[in-house]
Amino acid sequence: MLTEKTIAAAKPAEKDYRLWDEGGGGLYLDVKTTGRKVWRMSCRIAGKDVLLTFGRYDPTHADHVSLKRAREHRDGARRAIRDGKDPREEKHKAAAAVKAALNPDDADRVKPVALAYLNIRDGQDPKTKHQDQRRLETYIFPFRIERLGGRKMGETAMRDVQDKDLLAALRAVEALGRQPLAHKIKTLCSGVWKYGKHEGKCDSNIVADLAGAVKRGRKRHFASVQEPRRIGALLRAIDGYEGQPETLYALRLQPYFFLRSKALRHLEWSWVDFDREEIRISESIQKKRRPHVIPLARQAIVLLRELHALTADRSKYLFPGLRSAGRPISNGTLNAALRRMGYAKSDQTTHGFRSIADTHLHEMGYAHAMIKVQMSHLATEDDTDEAYNYAQYLNDPNTGKRPRHVMMQAWADYLDKLRALALRSDPNTNNVVPMTAA
């Protein structure tokens, strides 16, 4: 019977020779003329003579197979043969499983699955897709998983990524002082792993186990003036703007509309209904992908009729671009106009008019739910109402009144009052008292 001592003492000869493990069930050590020693096993499978190889005997090599390990391979092969299996096929399956774990198919890796998710995701515009892809490429794909020897997460099979690996990547974002971004990336990854589970690339959504682990952080708000006296001064500064007419009217109408910048700039004349005193915005440019209605106050209608004479015959947009009527005015143009009026980025932005309206409409006593609808937010507190009715508060079936029209007219009147009082007010004194809802 073979021993480790006799195997180590075996020297190469002029011809290959075998050292049999007596009573070893066909196991022997094949000693080559080069000195290489290989474990083999002679057996019969399905009536045919078969030679199995179990690896090399070489204590200095990483793949060294000892005598004990060779006998374990032999015993396993004999059990497989008794069970009607072919040890060679079992070996190939095991090797394939190891290879798949170390080198998963491209389709199973995190990066291609995530990119596929971004391509099929509903309700997104190209800007959102580009932004989310950049976040993944910057913070998730290149993150190295120490548990897997520093392998990049984007090159790792989804099944091999654990919740603690993803949490480590998110913690790295938090360490940069960008906690709100970490929470956004976590939400994005949840969509990726949900998609991966649906496509059979992973067994579960590991992000679900990170509930509460990454806080939203403090939300950044767009800059805006809030004191009534300063709001009035801002409105007067806009009235005195001497730039392009399209820019002037966009800035004059935004306080009455308080739309997101994209929605404001992409307004089309076909959406304006002077008879109904409304603008019905297409869902295609809305952040929540829902139609939105702007009830028009008298002041807004006057400005719209003036603007109609300027741009309606040459562009479908209310505010066509300065270089091409086929494109809307840019957000940079509007913010640049505010800068020229003396309002820094930290003072006021185009988007900041939304914050002004949100704050002061609440102070005027209007219902929170109605303000949320007018802000084009979802109508429920948890923002999960899929049955959102875009016409809510437009018509009261009991009284025949139009609540949102009444609110928007009161808001326009309030802005006019601030504008007028700003002319007479001492700049060092705030003698403006906010109006309250009727």
> Per CATH, what is the topology of the largest domain?
hpI Integrase, Chain A
Largest sheet: 4 strands, antiparallel
Note the run of SSEs as H and E: HEEEEHHHHEEHHHHHEEEHHHHH
Q: What level of helicity do the residues show?
A: 40-55%
Low-confidence stretches: 379-391
CATH superfamily of the largest domain: Intergrase catalytic core
Terminus-to-terminus distance:
104 Å
Rg calc: 36 Å
Which strands sit side by side, in order, in the main sheet? 1-2-3-4
CATH architecture of the largest domain: Orthogonal Bundle
Beta percentage is: 5-15%
Mean pLDDT: 85
> How many DSSP H or I helices?
15
Shape: rod-shaped
Judged by helices, strands and strand pairing, the structural class is: alpha+beta
Q: Quickly count the domains.
A: 3
Tell me what the structure shows.
- There is one protein chain.
- By secondary structure, the chain is α+β, with helices and mostly antiparallel strands.
- It folds into three domains: 4-102, Integrase, DNA-binding domain (Double Stranded RNA Binding Domain, 2-Layer Sandwich); 106-210, DNA polymerase, domain 1 (Orthogonal Bundle), CATH 1.10.150; 228-424, hpI Integrase, Chain A (Orthogonal Bundle).
- The chain is 44% helix and 9% strand.
- The protein has 15 helices and nine strands.
- The chain has helices at 4-9, 67-82, 87-102, 110-120, 126-140, 163-175, 179-198, 228-239, 245-257, 261-265, 298-311, 331-340, 352-363, 368-374, 403-424; strands at 17-20, 27-31, 37-45, 48-56, 144-145, 151-152, 272-273, 278-281, 292-295.
- Helix 4 (110-120) runs antiparallel to helix 5 (126-140) and helix 4 crosses helix 7 (179-198).
- Mean pLDDT is 85; it is low at 379-391.
